[in-house]
Amino acid sequence: MIVGIPKEIKNNENRVGMTPAGVNELVKHGHTVYVQKGAGENSGFPDSSYERVGAKILATIEDVYAISEMIVKVKEPIAPEYPLIRKGQLLFTYFHFASDRRLTEAMMSSGATCLAYETVELKDHSLPLLIPMSEVAGRMATQEGARFLERPQGGKGKLMGGVPGVKPAKVLVIGAGVVGYSAARIAAGMGADVTITDLSLSRLRHIDEIKPANIKTLYSSEFNIRAELPTTDLVVGAVLIPGAKAPHLITRDMLSTMEKGSVLVDVAIDQGGCFETSRPTTHSEPVYEVDGIIHYCVANIPGAVSATSTLALTNATLPYVVQLANKGWQKACSEDEALYKGLNIVDGKIIYPAVAEAFGLPCETI
Fold first, then answer.
1. What is the dihedral of CA 314, 346, 118, 35, to 10 degrees?
2. Start and end of every Alanine dehydrogenase/pyridine nucleotide transhydrogenase NAD(H)-binding domain (predicted)?
């Protein structure tokens, strides 16, 4: 199969779809890999590192799309890429369709097969291609939240861990999945007073058994969240419904109960955000204020630590990429239920129920 690795063109997206080690594995299996010039530079992988393992370097993104049967990316295609995608081409990347109607309609019109990292799902309901970036995003959410609590950044001027005689910052993490627990662990490590919420009592019990002493668990409800907000300095929104639009768990009216300069970090922004006042931001302009509350809603948080993120992502995606290249997507998906669940759009048809539901469109089968 001919596999293409284009350069990511989303704002400050520094990751690349595959490392040289991943390319080496594909070439070993007899596949041809084309990498766009400079695609890996911001992750620490110069063109020469790809050429050494057998990749061919192409000058432009147009060249890569034109020749490739399968495109392996990191983030969803953006508008300049839409015309480059053709019928029958396989795209393997993060899509997050439920939060972007324009992208959904563009991919339907293209006739391409869209296989989404975020909905590849194992029998235990874990999401193996989302987990590594969730781990990065959760850790980064706390790191960025701590930064924007600083007064020069517009925050209330609180140190996460406090100092002797001064209380630490209070952190509320909504959602106790991979993102949420990663955020809570980093906040606890910085010395903050951390509360983590979830609807799953079994998950909260598990966390209660393994957590540091400065993490407390709390059942997630509107009442409980409202009660926490007046004394909370940093909120991390880490709610995920696979493939579906995130629910709004903090509404506009709740902001009035928070102290000015408090920080909201919405890691669910890829799926529409879990705060009513959330809108996507970028690494170049990461924050905005609503009612005196700082909102950090960067849609590609792991892109800031691209070297770590690219390595972690390729570790997870490579076995699936090799399957798809060796067998073709039809055979690979028919033999691997996890991969089949990654199919979102095929030949102009939405086949993933949560995406169809988000836009009131029919969900078809193949």
1. 20
2. 149-297
